[in-house]
Amino acid sequence: MADTNTEPLLLTVEEAARQLNIGRTFAWELVRKGELPVVRLGRCVRVPRQALQEWLGRRVKEGT
Q1: 2 or 13, which is more confident
Q2: Which residues neighbour 46 within 8 Å (Cβ) at sequence distance 6 or greater?
Q3: Angle CA(33)–CA(44)–CA(7) in degrees, nearest 5?
């Protein structure tokens, strides 16, 4: 049976920033620091939706 979920698996850094309600520049800073989980596909940098949710969950647990 086909997956009917229409949400993309990968987000741009800008889309991830909107999801987190943070600025684009701050999101890119997190990427540069290696704090935000990303996948690099050639020159494209994408944030896996599931990894973003897991990352946020860990941050909430840690209280950071």
Answers
A1: 13
A2: 10, 11, 12, 13, 38, 39, 40
A3: 100
